[in-house]
Amino acid sequence: MADILPYLLSTFIGIGLAAASGFRVFLPLFAVSLASYFGWIPMGDNFEWLSGLPTLITTGAATLIEVLAYYIPVVDNFLDTLSIPLATIAGSVLFASQFMELGTFPQWALALIAGGGTAATIASGFAGTRAASTATTGGIGNNLVATTETAGAGLMSVLSIFLPVIAFILAIALIILVLFFGRKLWRKMKTQNSGIF
């Protein structure tokens, strides 16, 4: 059991950070860079770049730009088209960064499936939420969605670093919610479209 514990903890942290990437791409990267810069979490040799000052400054600036850009009408919807592939990449990188002792292939295979899949699922759910908000409120409600996403990214990043088990449980709950409501929305749209033809 003692042998499995480090991998389990890495999985909890990785899934939590990947979930945070589903909300915002750069904020979790900034959180990990900050935490590793101050030595709060260890980084393997392949991910040493995450703990460097240049990465900390770059991800900090990118986080600020990303957060502010989501409050600009039209830009927020454009960013949603980019957010799913970028979140998938960020989620994969953050998940992989937590596994220092695995071989390259298992590390990245797991990262793409678990990290990338988690980030993509949550990013898709919130892209759908923003699209629904734009359609129903004319974009007025998008600021609320943007604030919720930023708060979610911040909360999940902090929990992943300091309380990874809670972050993991929340991430699983979020995935279930996105899949449940996504399926409901898909059925509703399918019913409406079949009524048109």
Describe this structure in words.
The chain is mainly α. The protein contains seven helices and no strands. α2 (26-37) runs parallel beside α6. The termini are far apart. The model has no long low-confidence stretch (mean pLDDT 88). The chain crosses the membrane at residues 12-38, 50-72, 78-96, 161-182. InterPro entries: DUF4126. Keywords: Membrane, Transmembrane, Transmembrane helix. This is DUF4126 domain-containing protein. It comes from Epilithonimonas ginsengisoli.
Q: Which radius of gyration do the C-alpha atoms yield?
A: 17 Å
Overall number of strands: 0
Percent in strands:
under 5%
Q: Which sheet architecture does the biggest sheet show?
A: none
Mean pLDDT: 88
If helices are DSSP runs of H or I spanning 4 or more residues, what is the number of helices? Answer: 7
What is the string of SSEs from the N terminus onward?
A: HHHHHHH
Structural class: mainly alpha
Distance between the termini: 58 Å
Poorly predicted ranges? none
Oligomer: single chain
Query: What helical percentage do the residues reach?
Result: over 70%
Q: Which of globular, elongated, flat, extended, rod-shaped describes the shape?
A: globular
Transmembrane segments: 12-38, 50-72, 78-96, 161-182
Keywords: Membrane, Transmembrane, Transmembrane helix
Protein name: DUF4126 domain-containing protein
Pfam family, one: DUF4126
